[in-house]
Design brief:
Strand content: 25-35%
Helix content: 25-40%
Structural class: alpha/beta
Mean pLDDT: 90
CATH architecture of the domain at 109-249: 3-Layer(aba) Sandwich
Low-confidence stretches: 4-8
CATH class of the domain at 109-249: Alpha Beta
Shape: globular
Radius of gyration: 22 Å
CATH topology of the domain at 109-249: Rossmann fold
Number of helices: 11
Largest sheet: 8 strands, mixed
């Protein structure tokens, strides 16, 4: 099941795309062996059936012999850097060891703008004011433009129209002085939108609510970097009074999906081709991404590490994102519970700011909860207990722990679920 299937279930892919893939399989060392999986009878055409026979690649394939696995003998990494043609980056390393990357100069901003344009509200606003100021809140180790361990001054935290305000990757531990500085800098910057990791966004939002901080210039919030819980979305929308839109992708693929104004994730077709593998009975499968616009490090059928479901409707095709594969819980019955399915059960009760479900045994779980002070006064309403037991399946044993701190990963990201190893 691929996004291409909507256009051609078993036919030929567009010749421009076929030519691009054949070029990569000829030019890029990593893919040369793949040419044996496709027909050589007609170099102009390539069928979707042949495409789906190509091997899946993983982060280990990117790491192995990098960068020579992507650069042909005619391309020198030193020459590309000296000519300012590429940027050397790496992933944040949340799920495993960081992955080195080759990104074309200017590619990140180009593909981001393409994805943002899928949302009509964001597209119209950025068309009117292309250089809209933004404030970014995320882990310094997750941002590809600014990474720091010291204490940089404000001018060192500005890239174009973006101001990066937080200095550490521990949002639940931000001191009052840091939060006050962040509010002051945001007020002075007058952003049109916030670009946030959702957990960083809610910690900032709660402080703003407590001190009565308002940002009249704000029009919307872009949530990215990790899964945005309904808890996070609801809290930020309540406090800031603007819509929250989810932008999905990774450093290695770029932004693949953008949420529209109906909370539907649409594929950024200029950036990627996507498909699902290992699809279960619910239609949820491993997301595979083929990038289309990074000529220095093209990815063919790349297993990005997330789960998704394709939904077809009368209005077209959109995608449900189900979170990290590594965060899906295997229930005692053998059924898989995804982050999205868990979040729908937890978040709809409106009593939590943030949470993490830990699987302690095959049918034993603990829910760590940070209550939303403005929500339900009872942090564990009976309906929440019942809904969790329902999705975790009887005879699940469930403990609840209320706290003001849930630790993040070394990358600065946060997991909503921790299955058994």
């Amino acid at each position: 099941m691929t996004s291409a299937d909507v256009l051609a279930e078993n036919g030929l892919m567009p010749r421009s795309l076929a030519a691009k893939l054949r070029d990569w399989m000829t030019r890029v060392p990593l893919y040369r062996a793949m040419s044996s999986f496709i027909s050589r009878d007609n170099d102009l055409d390539l069928s979707w059936k042949e495409f789906r026979r190509l091997p899946v690649i993983t982060k280990n394939d990117i790491r192995s012999n990098f960068p020579h696995n992507f650069l042909s003998n005619t391309l020198s990494l030193k020459h590309l850097i000296e000519n300012d043609s590429i940027e050397l980056e790496r992933t944040s390393g949340t799920s495993e060891e960081p992955v080195p990357l080759l990104l074309g100069k200017g590619w990140w901003n180009k593909q981001e703008r393409s994805a943002l344009g899928l949302n009509p509200v964001v597209r119209a606003f950025l068309h009117e004011i292309p250089e809209s100021p933004r404030v970014t809140l995320t882990s310094p180790s997750c941002n590809h433009d600014i990474t720091y361990r010291g204490i940089p001054c404000r001018s060192e935290r500005v890239i174009g129209q973006a101001l990066f305000v937080n200095l550490t990757r521990h949002p639940f531990l931000w001191p009052e002085s840091a939060l006050a500085r962040m509010v002051e800098e945001t007020s002075e910057w007058q952003p049109h939108f916030l670009d946030v990791d959702p957990v960083y966004g809610i910690c900032f939002a709660r402080y703003c609510e407590r001190v009565g901080a308002r940002f009249p210039s704000l029009r919307f919030i872009i949530s990215s970097y990790e899964y945005c819980s309904l808890c996070h979305r609801r809290l930020m929308q309540r406090i800031f009074g603007v819509p929250v839109y989810d932008l999905y992708g990774s450093t290695e693929t770029g932004h693949v999906f953008m949420e529209n104004d109906r909370e539907e994730h649409l594929l950024s077709q200029e950036t990627a081709l996507v498909e699902l593998s290992e699809v279960d009975a619910q239609g949820i499968g491993q997301l595979l991404v083929t990038t289309l616009d990074n000529e220095f490090m093209p990815l063919i059928r790349y297993q990005i590490g997330d789960l998704a479901r394709m939904v077809r409707s009368g209005d077209g095709t959109f995608w449900e994102l189900h979170g990290r594969t590594m965060d899906a819980i295997r229930l005692a019955s053998g059924r898989r519970l995804t982050v999205r399915q868990l979040d729908q059960a937890v978040a709809r009760h409106g009593s939590l700011m943030h949470y993490q479900l830990r699987q302690l045994g095959p049918d034993h779980y603990r829910l760590l909860m940070i209550p939303d002070a403005q929500g339900n006064s009872d942090p564990v309403p009976q309906a929440l207990r019942e809904d969790l037991i329902r999705v975790l399946e009887e005879p699940a044993v469930l403990d609840f722990v209320s706290t003001d701190y849930i630790p993040g990963e070394s990358s600065g990201k946060f997991r909503l679920a921790r299955p058994l190893p």
